[in-house]
Amino acid sequence: MTKRTVKFLFMLSATMLVMGLSAMAYAQGDDAAVASAKASAGGWIGLGAGLGIGLAALGGALGQGRASAAFLDGVSRNPGASDKVFVPMILGLVFIESLAIYALIIAFLLMGKIA
């Protein structure tokens, strides 16, 4: 990872920590603290679900792009092999997409825990 990426991830985690701690700092009583903790937990679950599906979509898109580029590169070098390579390429794209669908299902399950 580059220094810029590490710096960004550090700043993102510090910001999320401050947001979580600020909800606890303004709690006024036991009932308010419990309500604030529940709201904060729901916010973290929602954030996790959103980030999870976003990262899964990004990873799936990058994987499908690389697989398609490799397929087109191979077919352009040897057009006669396109029949033998087409089905495994489609199968690989299906497996890549299934991982993104699993992440979507997990995000829906997480969002169900908020309510």
Describe this entry's structure for a reader.
The chain is mainly α. It has a single domain, classed as Up-down Bundle (F1FO ATP Synthase). The chain contains three helices and no strands. It is elongated and about 70 Å long. The mean pLDDT is 80.
Key phrases:
F1FO ATP Synthase; 115 residues
Per DSSP, the total helix count is 3
How would you spell out the order of helices and strands?
Answer: HHH
Helical/strand content category: mainly alpha
CATH class: Mainly Alpha
Q: Assign a percent range to the helix content.
A: over 70%
Biggest β-sheet description: none
Q: What is the strand content?
A: under 5%
Radius of gyration equals: 22 Å
CATH architecture: Up-down Bundle
Instruction: Name the average pLDDT.
Output: 80
The CATH superfamily is identified as F1F0 ATP synthase subunit C
Distance between the termini: 37 Å
Shape descriptor reads elongated
What are the SSEs and their pairings?
Blueprint: H1 3-25, H2 30-77, H3 82-114
Helix pairs in contact: 2-3
Compact description:
The protein is mainly alpha-helical and about 120 residues long.
